[in-house]
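Re: that backbone. Tokens:
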């Protein structure tokens, strides 16, 4: 219900084109509304979007677009989250180059909702105007009553009687076939493709709110507000099929490409040179024998394990037990990783992302060494390159904190085990000598390498192999990606 109200109110106020605005208007930026006691933070984005759109439509200000605001502040290293004080608003305004800032909050006491807005002069740091509006209503009704009332006050205008109904009537005459198609498309998508339910909801919206226009802006917001790249891409493809007339059909791919590039830049790959090495060990476990020569073609490998932030960007959730954005993702099965790889290759066609073969993994870990660990043979030296039972304090750690190996790869020993593509074999008899993936039945027995924060140094050896069930989600197994050097 709230989604439909937010969508309707947003559409009602987004009318006009910024190119027609006078250059004399004051430039403002709107901070994310602070949801105080009793109000769920999940409403903050939608209500701020409504406020920003309303202010834009008053023609009293030139309103800095949210995406541009976030981009500027991110480039300056400014943390916008939790920025609610006057001093913080002024600092943000100075970085943004705007004349005034609007900050505010919404709180709840019993059934009473209070909207508080402040208009702040950036140059002087003074509060130019502070306004409050209240209603005994639901949070959904705040979007169409108190928030708009406070917004009218903050721009120094009288709140018209029945302002919600007035705006609805103003837009009912301007709906196009594209608007109708958009609204139906949104409902169909939100309802999971149930057409009969979608049509019923469409009729309900038309009966209750009348027709609406400016669907382009709502389409844009719907897509860019998705929590992951894969979801945004999916929503765009759905909307393009349902709503080909949209102006943003040509703009969204540019935005997606920009976000993809940002994501790619967060993942650093190291070039692994071609070469040969002695895989396995003559002295340890039977499954490490026989030691044998393997020739490895060049490839690229992530310099760290995949982080929780990177996983969530693609998969829309974070299953990890030890939650922290820069820690390696864990509690993921081998099959979960295959879905991640699939989505990555859909987002970035032609790259050919995959898990490393077991031979590629050991070759990259050793980085030209023949010692027990790539750091040497001593456990004291291992402390400098790995998180393991002796120094981890019983948890994972942010990737890339320890020293890398000679090829610039971090955490090849410890932190979390890493899934490989290969099936597990009891020994190396019959293993490929070209570094390729070795797969036989049973398929659910897969190889993990590198040791983890949980175990002793012996498990971290370059040659150590662990059989792991591909279906299980262990809280000390993660992974990193590779791609062949023949791919761009």
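Recovered sequence:
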């Amino acid at each position: 219900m709230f989604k439909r109200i937010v969508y309707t109110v947003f559409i009602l106020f987004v009318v006009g084109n910024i190119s027609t605005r006078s250059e004399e208007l004051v430039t403002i930026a709107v901070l994310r509304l602070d949801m105080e006691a009793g109000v769920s933070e999940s409403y903050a984005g939608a209500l701020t979007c409504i406020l920003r759109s309303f202010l834009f439509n008053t023609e009293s200000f030139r309103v800095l677009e949210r995406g541009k605001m976030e981009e500027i502040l991110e480039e300056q290293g400014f943390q916008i989250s939790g920025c609610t004080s006057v001093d913080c608003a002024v600092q943000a305004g100075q970085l943004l180059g705007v004349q005034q800032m609007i900050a505010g909050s919404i709180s709840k006491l019993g059934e009473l909702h209070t909207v508080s807005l402040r208009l702040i002069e950036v140059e002087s740091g003074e509060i130019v105007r502070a306004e409050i509006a209240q209603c005994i209503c639901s949070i959904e009704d705040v979007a169409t009553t108190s928030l708009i009332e406070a917004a009218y006050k903050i721009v120094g205008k009288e709140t018209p009687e029945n302002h919600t109904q007035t705006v609805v009537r103003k837009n009912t005459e301007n709906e196009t076939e594209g608007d109708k198609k958009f609204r139906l498309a949104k409902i169909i998508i939100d309802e999971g493709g149930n057409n009969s339910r979608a049509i019923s909801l469409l009729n309900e919206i038309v009966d209750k709110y009348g027709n609406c226009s400016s669907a382009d802006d709502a389409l844009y917001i719907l897509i860019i507000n998705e929590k992951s790249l894969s979801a945004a891409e999916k929503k765009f493809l759905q909307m393009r099929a349902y709503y080909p007339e949209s102006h943003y059909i040509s703009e969204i791919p540019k935005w997606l490409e920009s976000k993809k590039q940002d994501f790619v830049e967060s993942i650093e790959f190291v070039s692994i040179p071609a070469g040969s090495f002695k895989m396995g060990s003559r002295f340890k476990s039977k499954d490490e024998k026989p030691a044998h020569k393997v020739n490895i073609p060049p490839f690229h490998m992530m310099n760290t394990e995949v982080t929780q932030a990177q996983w969530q960007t693609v998969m829309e959730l974070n299953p990890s037990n030890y939650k922290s954005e820069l820690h390696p993702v864990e509690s993921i099965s081998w099959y979960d990783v295959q879905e991640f790889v699939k989505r990555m290759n859909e987002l970035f066609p032609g790259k050919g992302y995959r898990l490393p073969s077991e031979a590629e993994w050991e070759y990259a870990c050793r980085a030209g060494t023949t010692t027990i660990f790539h750091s040497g043979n001593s456990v004291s030296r291992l402390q400098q390159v790995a998180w393991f039972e002796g120094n981890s304090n019983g948890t994972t750690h942010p990737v890339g904190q320890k020293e890398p190996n000679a090829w610039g790869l971090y955490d090849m020993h410890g932190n979390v085990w890493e899934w490989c593509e290969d099936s597990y074999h009891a020994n190396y008899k019959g293993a490929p000598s070209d570094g390729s993936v070795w797969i036989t039945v049973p398929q659910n027995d897969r190889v993990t390498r590198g040791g983890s924060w949980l175990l002793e140094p012996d498990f971290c050896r370059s040659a150590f192999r662990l059989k792991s069930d591909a279906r299980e989600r262990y809280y000390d197994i993660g992974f990193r990606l590779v791609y062949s050097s023949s791919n761009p």
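Residues 309 and 325 are 5 Å apart (CA to CA). Residues 1-23, 162-173, 191-195, 208-215 have pLDDT under 50 and may be disordered.
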